[in-house]
Automatic annotation (TrEMBL):
InterPro entries: Ankyrin_rpt, Ankyrin_rpt-contain_sf, NLR-like, NPHP3-like_N, Nucleoside_phosphorylase_d, Nucleoside_phosphorylase_sf, P-loop_NTPase. The keyword Repeat applies. It comes from the Eukaryota. It comes from Plectosphaerella cucumerina. This is Nucleoside phosphorylase domain-containing protein. Keywords: ANK repeat, Repeat. Residues 19-36 have a biased composition (Basic and acidic residues). One of its GO terms (biological process) is nucleoside metabolic process.
Amino acid sequence: MAPESSLSGDDSGYSPQRRQRDPALSLHDRTRRADSPALSHDDYTVAWICALSLELTASRAMFDVVHENLVAQRGDDNAYVLGRMAHHNVVMVALPGAYGKVNAATVSTHLKRTFPNVTTTLMVGIGGGAPGEANMRLGDVVVATRVIEYDLGKAIGDGQFESTAGPKRPSHQRLSAEPWIHYGGIASGDSVNKDAQKRDAISRRLNTVCFEMEAAGMMDNLQCLPIRGICDYSDSHKNKRWQPYAAATAAAYARELLETIHLPRMGSRRSAIRPPQKKTCSWLLDHPTYLDWLDPDKQEYHHGFLWIRGKAGAGKSTLMKFLYSEARKVNDDSSVISYFFNARGEYLERSTIGMYRSLLKHLLVHMSTTEWHQIKYDTYLRSVFESQGQGCPGFNELKQMVRCAVLARENRPLIFFIDALDECDEDDVRDMMCFFEDLAEDASEEGIELHVCFSSRPYPYVSIRTRLLMTLEEEAGHTADLARYVNKRLRIQDQYRAEFESYILDKAWGIFMWVVLVVDILNKESNRGGLALRRRLSEIPLGLSQLFKDILTRDEENPQELRRCILWVLCAQKPLTPDQFRHAMWAAGLRDGRVDNVVPDAYNPRSSNALVISSSKGLAEVSRSDHPVVQFIHESVRDFLVRDRGLQELWPDLGFEWEGPAHESIRECCELYLTTTFRLRGAGPFQDPIFCKGYRATDYIMLYNAPEMTAEERIASSCVFLDYASKEILYHSNLAAPCVPQQAFLARLFGFERQTDIDYGKVVSVPVPRYKHADPFRNKTILETFTLLRLDNLIRLALKAMGLTGTNAQMAELHRKAFFAAIQHNHSHLSLQSIAPLLGLPSLVYEGEAIITTKRITWKFGIDSIRGRTPLSWASQEGQRTLAKVLILNGESLVEKDSQGYTPLQRAILNKHTAIVRLLSESGLDMGTRDVAVTIHQELRSGNFEMTQTLLKVYDGYGKPDGAAWIVSSLLPQAIGAAPRDIVDLLIRHTANDNKTHLRLLYPLRTAIIHGSIRMVAILLDRGVDINARDDWDEFPLLTAVRHNKAIKARMLVERLTARQLAAQLGHDDLVRILDDIDSRQPRTEG
């Protein structure tokens, strides 16, 4: 038995040398082979080509699942191996007979014809290294950035060879990951090179790091990425000793690469849609509206937009899948792109950010070299790439990248099919419409033929200015499709069959889903003898919602099972697999003793599918996809239950706030499953104390290639619901918390005797998933863990409990650690939602503004950069004004220094956030200190005039001793020479009117005469500067102007001088005495 371990402890039980497989793949998945169901040729999107049998042997070991073979196209002699690797369906093939470029070209031609949906091709095997400057060792991996045929060219005399081959570059999508491997050119030829001197000459001439014999032939037919393990150094010392190891390292890297280019469940919604009934949907291909949409000559009338609208369940998604498939038959793969929103899927499947990511991936995969360089050197995108680092671009950046990728196309039409807009947020759809309208306008200006087809229900009320519109229920072709379906599927051999068909079509109102359900009901009644067909048909209600209610309430068989099924499908954090669903239903049945006490068999598709259908009374199904999950047969079922309040009609005890009790029921199910003593079939009683006294199930989920299956491994492989239950139990507890107290459960979970004993500042182990490279939950308190898992209701519960028991200092420290835990490990607006309860707010919006603007956040920081920081210090650094405002209102100190000695004001100034500076001033921060004065001087010297102006406006030291002296002696002369006029005016206005002002302004006046404007001189003269005094250079202002040839400024000074002052400054002493004598003779006037 494995020792008990916590999830926050060391991963000592896992060898770092083992390849970390996808945790979503169970032990059974990784050992399953040819008994897996066969897919179609269209399901395979990755080609993996090897030259030698030993390369194929190493590559086959990378499969997670091996699929049944498929019949190849006529004339295709390739022997394929099919399977699943990571989240991709992969077709693997080795070159038959001989290796070389010609043979590789033949294999790739046949492969492309047999598997038309292949978008990613890898050439995996061994190669000879060209060490050169690279520190290359045997077994290292080389990934090609280009492939050059080194023996394609002509001899030009004197033993020289001129290459005529151009470099062939692999698809750029496949170059996105960068582990510790060699990147460089690969030289491809028809013969094995064993000459070191020839190797070095070719390597220097073509700048290559590897030699091989197949990639060049492959690149002419399939855009592939060659990956080569180095087995020798392409010289006379060749031997086969290193070939198996080099083949294995290349295959291992190729698999890791496939794991990195996966977008979770991308395309799963489209693949789950059943194909249309034969001879249906084809009417649209000849419809005048559809033909006008594709006609480039009529683009100006509709701007390339076609909108297909229809009621819920009318068959829009089936029609869109048909149109997408037909468009791909007459266009190349790069020209037809689809996205099917899925409200029942994960976040990316039902959001526009997932759509933009999917569209961008497809566009980048199929880019030519010229198009790639055009988008690569776009000024805006370069700034995005530089600012994002390793993270995914933000929402606006993704949109701009899609725009650039579309506009970079070289005279190739582009067709988008985007389905189910109503399954996405309405505001996001409006924003998306604006994006596509602007994109269509830009594409038209660039001469790019762009077509976009949308489908949705008649709501949300979102539209586009210029488009073609088609309403499905009003189309005769759609009505004909309904009639074909009824005619073929209705199994009633009755003289009144035509009457039945007419009634169904008349009451269908164009809703295909209603027709499908009604036909199924009548067929079942017919199978029972058909004695009550007419009565049953008359009892069937009109409209989908009423029909769903009728199906669910018609009999009282297994009502508790129905309730559990509906709540699981409706409330699961992510869709359950069929086997997980079966085990979840078994755990729920344990409470009332309605199931066996022996855990059900794992991986029993027939039993799982039967349970889904029977327990939901046909309203749930197992999706038809490579990764099947349990879901409602249509989104309209969810609409009936939630929007139309079907849940309250079925189970009034749930009440209007049904989410809390529903999630509490699921939480109890998870807890029961995790704490059950499992009895395995055929194994006798087995009791593991770990399962009885704690929650450590996740420790047994991630098992890697164990030589023998231990008891714990048998539990993990047999109890398929452990993974979900251990990871998501806190998720359901959080959603139940507003309605159902959770303290007793949390005490059991964290090992406290009473719920009043829970210490939320204690470092504990919790059931959370392991992380491949780092464990963010290591050494975290309960409150930090809640924050990391974004459990907002449990955070509020913890803060409330801590407020009753903890001291202010303890509260502040725990609060600070939880705040930075959220900031450090969550990199999107969605995952920052745990910040709100820490701030005592209901949401991430305060006074109509987002508390945190994620596009401003600098994510590149580690634990050292936030150690000793305060939340206000961080908010000031990042320019998060609303967050800083909330923190100040919550009592954060305005002057507390962080571990690096910076105050929030200094952080704001260093990062040029003027709005934060103004906020701190408005919040009562003393802005008249010497530190502020010094900072103003530094900002002015550095040329940051915006910050200088902001600081001058809030500076409160002008009335203090020497405040004006500091301005006129230091800032003003410097500003006159370089700063904008507004700053100079601001400084002059703040000079004090005391008995020294007229002398202090002499230095600024000298600067203004030499470097400033006439207006500056006039302002200083009006301010009262003494122009009859000498400055620090022992010079009168007038003489300064004359000496620097400033005639206008000199005239301004002369006009303000008396005759005597002028004579004195010019050195005419005789004239001064005459003027003094004249002045002395003037009679005095009496007042």
